[in-house]
Amino acid sequence: MARILQRSLTTAILSLSLVMTLCPGSAAEASTGRAASSTQVNSATMAGGTTASSSPAADDDFTPRTVEPRYDSVPGEISAPEDEIAPPIVGSKPEQESPDSSESPTATATPVYQCDNYGQLPRYNSVATNAADYYNWNIFPNTKVGDGRGNINWKLDPYADLGWTLWFSSLRWIGPSIEAARKGDGTAFIKAETIIKDWIRDHPVSWLSDLDDIEANTHRLNVLICFREVVMLRNGGIFPSSYQWLLDSLNLHAKHNIARWSGAHNHGTSENKALLGLGCLINRKDYQEIAVSRVEEAYPYQVDSQGLSNEASPMYADFNYRLFRQVRDLMTRCGWTSTLVNSRLGLMGDAIGHMVNGTGKFFQYGDTEVSKPLSPGTPGMLWAATNGLHGSHSTPRIRIFKAGPVFGRSSWGTRETGFANEVAWMLRGGTGKEKKAHRGDLLQLLFTARGRDIVIDAGHPGIVGAPWEPWGRGTLAHNTINIPTLDMTIGGTASVTRYSFPTNGKGDYLEMTQSFGAKGNRTRGILMMKGPDAAVVLDRTVIVDSTKRHTIQTQWAVPADQTTTVPGRSVARSAAPSNTLTTFVHIPFWGVQEVQRGETQLYRGVVGTTPRGHWYPLQQQRQPTDQLVFSRFGNRVGTISVIVPARKTAGVGVTRSKYPDGATKLVIRIGTDVIEVRITAGGYMSQVR
């Protein structure tokens, strides 16, 4: 019954999600998931469904042995699935399926490119606030920006906030008046026209020198297109010659679009879409050709052959996916086709499905708010978005992407069970220099179990200013290995060195290493276990520097609704409002085998020069949360973290001993269940029982 009720709620949420839009500036039949075998195997199903061998489960010295995973190896492009099942993003009116055949801007036919809506700005603004020359965005108060007669001070920046000025300059905030005018409100029409004319009057020739206006230019161009629609609606489908000023401004915006294209990321894609749409509307073939050529130029860099976005943020990957679907459909209606765009959209959708954790939301890394897939367009995305109610899951439960991140789960679940109670995890590899990335989150582990987050990222610090943006992009905000005594920006790519995944999802082992060149390296190995749920994380760091004794820290942040205590030097417990208690155990791997006083620390909401213990559920909303820090000192440090999410009534205990060959033996007791883990001297981990 609980599953049926949950599915009813999931259906309602899905129905709602399919009629919502997200602006990041402002988301085959199932297998049973019950494999009979629980033995360790030396192979793993890799991205794309191919089979790859793991590195040998053998001992070795500390220097990681690099293993090149076998990734997708398919010549040419892989065709996108034919069964994209979700409709185009809802929010603008349906667009006609054939190009506008008009020869001039006086067309009477329904345009092929219609109003692109106003993002989230109508949430904060209304016809009444527009009429009084008030503007509002996000957490900021209503602000008087004009004299009440549409004479606006476009230089205002009262909160020194880039987001506030971006959406102010974009004109999206007058969307309520434009849409009221569409319904016949003449007063609202005059107000919208007055504000638009005021902006044009105050920017008569060029604003190319205003670098902050690059993004606003595209959004403003779309607002002008929305207003153009209303002008034609009020004039029987004819574009009056008296509105030549509007056409001139549209062309000037196109000129700026061409001169300052943002390149291969979502801003550039939005610019391509706007320029192509305008070119189709007013029959400017040159605009169309430029936009299409830019799409073709940028797309291979924006979406790789595995479908991974070049923006290291699941929320932005999802946004880009929807943008590309819109661009593809617009190209078709304008008479253009792109084999390249079509070929990778299905791959992109499947990749995004893997970025969803057990709560149905995206793993929150990079510039990502708490969000979930919107308008899921492939069977795999839909399965992930609906907890297995619709669609079909991807064949591999673990995906290793060449660009860095690895996503895994104990099972995709079934239609009857869903996957909320499975263990889902991600380990962050890559360069840290990707767009929308946080440089400091390399080697970060995130995971969910028991239907909730267990350890979390600090979240989205985009466009928030100092000190929070640099903090949020640095190592202090992430579940990684922090070395405050070393310049960590010298680090290279964090790459997979070895892995081993059993067929039943128990004891999934993965290891990544990042080199600091001549300065040393840091390595993280994870062993993710299901039934009972637990994670063992082994961090090993070697710094080649005889001039100082380094501080090396393993950091863990828990959800903001939890309360954490540290009852002993090596143990911390974090209680959720639900029936989950997560136990953290700090165990030295190298050196002194006992945790010393002060080596396990707890922070919450610390500000100042070294902020700790904060979380951004949304871009402009910060909350305090608990962060545990396991500190060790020296130039060769090994730290084991045992993380056990269990029922509050289940006692948790960990004992450490040695096998006859010298390997470390961990026995983890969770209620009446027992897990045994073996860790070799070289750091390889496996679940014995």
TrEMBL record:
| Position of the signal peptide | 1-27
Q: Which residue intervals define the domain Heparinase II/III-like C-terminal in the entry?
A: 440-500
Q: Cite the GO molecular-function annotations of the record.
A: lyase activity
Low complexity composition-biased segments: 43-57
Give the InterPro entries listed for this entry: Chondroitin_lyas (IPR008929), Hepar_II_III_C (IPR012480)
For this protein, the record's Pfam families field holds: Hepar_II_III_C (PF07940)
Quote the Gene3D superfamilies the UniProt record gives.
Answer: 2.70.98.70, Chondroitin AC/alginate lyase
Kindly indicate whether the keyword rRNA-binding belongs to this entry. no
Write the protein's name: Heparinase II/III-like C-terminal domain-containing protein
Q: Which organism is it from?
A: Neomicrococcus lactis
